[in-house]
Amino acid sequence: MRPIGEFDDEERASTFSGYLNYKGIPCEIEEDDEGKSWTVWAHNEDTLAKAIAEIHEFRQKPDASKYAELAREAQKQEKKARKIEENKASRWREETLRDRWQDRNRKPGIITMALIITCIATSFVSKMGEDTEAVRAFYISELVHIAAREAPVYLSSAQNPLPEVSEGQVWRLITPIFLHFGFFHIIFNMFWLHDLGSLIENRRGTGYFVALILLAAIIPNIAQYCISGPSFGGMSGVVYGLFGYAWMKGKFDPGDGIEMNSSTVIIMLAWFALCFTGIFGNVANWAHAGGLAVGTLWGYASAMRWTGNRG
After folding, report:
1. Range of the domain at 48
2. I want to staple 252 with a disulfide (CB 3.0 to 4.6 A). Which of 91, 108, 267, 303 is the partner?
3. pLDDT-derived band of residue 87, with 50, 70 and 90 as boundaries?
């Protein structure tokens, strides 16, 4: 760099420096140790002669409007360029973070794999739901079978709606999630369980994931039982719980590394709505709804907690 000239006024030094930058002569100013003068330096020697000519003209009419106007314009351009670079850097960081989480979080955790294996094993034991005796052991209640042709006991026995559970068979609140009735039923649920479960378990930890799974199983199962009876099964309620959680975290707390692709959100919500139309037959819609409610509420509360703390 080469010095162009000195000023005893910082504002004039800044104005002239900005003017030169606008004219395509890269330069900067430097304050002396005592803070009494400011030197303008040209970055390139090949522009030195032009810069010196400009400073002679500037000293004759330092208050000319063109200098201040062009200096301001140079500042705007500099801010714009800096913002573009910051956005590029930010996008790069976000893409790097997303890629890192995707690479890391799609490896199934121990609980995710245990759930998948249990569902597959249960499907073999129950012959995809065709073995009624095996299936009954997984239902939330067997009262509908005991009642046979009588009025549905699961609706009429208000004082004891879940007798097996009250007698100690608390696992029945969860076991319906392991039942699947058909090849496509289990394939659909296992795909989403692997994808969403791996993401959340590896990001939030095993204990946190287990708590989410239990809540997303118990509440949807109870909701489905209270409205439609005990003859249901599937991991769909849990899947919608995991979906709702990831959806809210990605929307309101993206820095946590859990996010949902917009197309995936549309697919999951469209499927949720279509199932309620009845075109796919007997579907545990209230388990879907319960799971989605649990996941979205938990995900939103978690997002608000962390974003609030950061704010």
Report:
1. 2-75
2. 303
3. low
Question: Are 22 and 73 within 8 A, CB to CB?
Answer: yes
Of residues 206, 207, 210, 264, the one with CA closest to residue 240: 264
* 85 part of a folded domain: no
Query: Residue 110 and residue 199: Cα distance in Å, rounded?
Result: 12
- Closest by CA position to 272, among listed 258, 293, 254: 293
Residues acting as catalytic residues: 236, 288
Region of 181 (left: φ > 0; alpha: ψ -120 to 50; beta: rest) is: beta
Rounded to whole angstroms, the Cα distance separating 95 from 7 reads: 46
CATH of the domain at 43: 3.30.70.2350
pLDDT tens across 160-171, in order?
678 899 899 999
Contact 246, 193 (CB under 8 A): no
Please state, as a whole number, how many other Cβ atoms lie within 10 Å of the Cβ of residue 93. Answer: 10
pTM of the model: 0.63
207 and 139, same structural domain? yes
Report the relative pairing of strands 2-7 and 38-42 from DSSP bridges: antiparallel
In this structure, what token pair is assigned to residue 161?
């709606």
